[in-house]
Design the sequence.
């Protein structure tokens, strides 16, 4: 037995985009560095959003994380500031060439806490065959969306996490970003308008959608003829590839609200290294390998990944293989709103979606909803964990 062998463990989420892409890059890295064995485990999409990274960092060397954890990471030091170890030229390339604010989303307190190997934001998706069959066109405005929803053809991800992201989206599009003031989430005027627009849509969305995340929306659209259009769900280029599902989905930029393209809420994932990793140098070398633009647009993409590097989004091969998913949705990525990343924001994110979801489903007093959101927000500002 070679006592110099190195074993690293990673944790990602349970979808081809998150898992098989990681496994493929780990295998190729092993082939190039036989002394290094990297194994990846997976967890549900909800656990990916919820489970504190300080607990994961105790058990895993490599972590695929959601960028709202960045402020927590910076304050607690549970993951490694990668800029201290990686070449400046490499970091500069990522800063310039990562899609939208993806690279910035993992920067906090002048350090880079993860590499944006994956980029996503809510985009529109269509079953072109079903729309044609129903004599319908892709909605270009909010009013056209409501008209299509009244026909029962529209699906949205309606779990609390996603309804909160939709609230952020509508507020930003109306001209006001959330969580800027220390006194309220967003102004009363903007917040109430956003809630009422979402309720207007929610009235015409099937109740099943309020238990769906983006993956479940796309699985439903690509495996049955139930829904023909989704106006905003975190994009998954997998469903635009031949053979991935029974029916192929065509992805687009999002529609207009009051003449302005929706400013959706940035998602994507970052590859981080636990500060407790015993082989930090090797783990960081692997992270650099995964984020390399050549690997991003080949091995990573070919095995289900959704790259974070701009060269992969503009690449002829990746677009020809995905009905131009990347080229057609890039404008949405580039204008996407960067979620708050202050230390206590995960508390707000975990709790604020449910009342918005309930209002979208059942209506009620929108001022009561805003009052509750503001109370949750103030509590999150004061958190010291």
Sequence:
């Amino acid at each position: 037995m070679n006592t110099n062998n190195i074993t690293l463990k990673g944790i990602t989420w349970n979808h081809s985009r998150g898992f098989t892409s990681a496994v493929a890059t780990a295998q190729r890295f092993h082939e190039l560095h036989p002394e290094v064995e990297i194994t990846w485990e997976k967890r549900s999409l909800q656990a990916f959003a919820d489970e504190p990274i300080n607990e994961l960092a105790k058990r895993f060397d490599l972590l695929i994380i959601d960028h709202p954890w960045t402020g927590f990471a910076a304050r607690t030091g549970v993951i490694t500031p990668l800029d201290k170890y990686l070449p400046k030229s490499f970091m500069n390339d990522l800063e310039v060439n990562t899609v939208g604010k993806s690279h910035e989303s993992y920067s906090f307190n002048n350090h880079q806490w993860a590499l944006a190997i994956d980029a996503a934001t809510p985009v529109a998706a269509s079953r072109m065959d079903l729309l044609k069959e129903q004599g319908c066109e892709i909605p270009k405005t909010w009013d056209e969306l409501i008209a299509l929803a009244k026909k029962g053809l529209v699906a949205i991800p309606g779990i609390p996490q996603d309804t909160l992201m939709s609230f952020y989206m509508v507020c930003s599009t109306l001209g006001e970003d959330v969580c800027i003031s220390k006194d309220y989430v967003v102004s009363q005027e903007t917040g109430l308008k956003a809630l009422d627009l979402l309720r207007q849509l929610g009235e015409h969305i099937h109740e099943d959608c309020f238990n769906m995340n983006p993956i479940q929306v796309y699985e439903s659209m690509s495996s049955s003829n139930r829904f023909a259009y989704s106006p905003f769900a975190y994009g998954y280029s997998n469903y635009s590839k031949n053979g991935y599902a029974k029916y192929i989905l065509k992805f687009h930029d999002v529609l207009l609200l009051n003449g302005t393209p929706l400013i959706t809420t940035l998602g994507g994932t970052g590859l981080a290294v636990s500060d407790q990793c015993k082989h930090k140098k090797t783990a960081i070398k692997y992270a650099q390998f995964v984020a390399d633009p050549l690997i991003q647009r080949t091995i990573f993409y070919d095995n289900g990944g959704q790259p974070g590097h701009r060269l992969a989004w503009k690449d002829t091969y990746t677009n020809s293989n995905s009905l131009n998913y990347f080229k057609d949705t890039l404008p949405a990525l580039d204008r996407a709103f960067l979620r708050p990343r202050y230390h206590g924001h995960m508390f707000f994110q975990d709790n604020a979606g449910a009342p918005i979801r309930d209002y979208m489903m059942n209506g009620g007093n929108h001022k009561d909803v805003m009052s509750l959101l503001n109370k949750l927000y103030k509590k999150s500002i004061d958190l010291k964990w």
In short: The chain is about 45% helix and 15% strand. The longest strand covers residues 6-13. The mean pLDDT is 95. The first helix runs from residue 20 to 32.
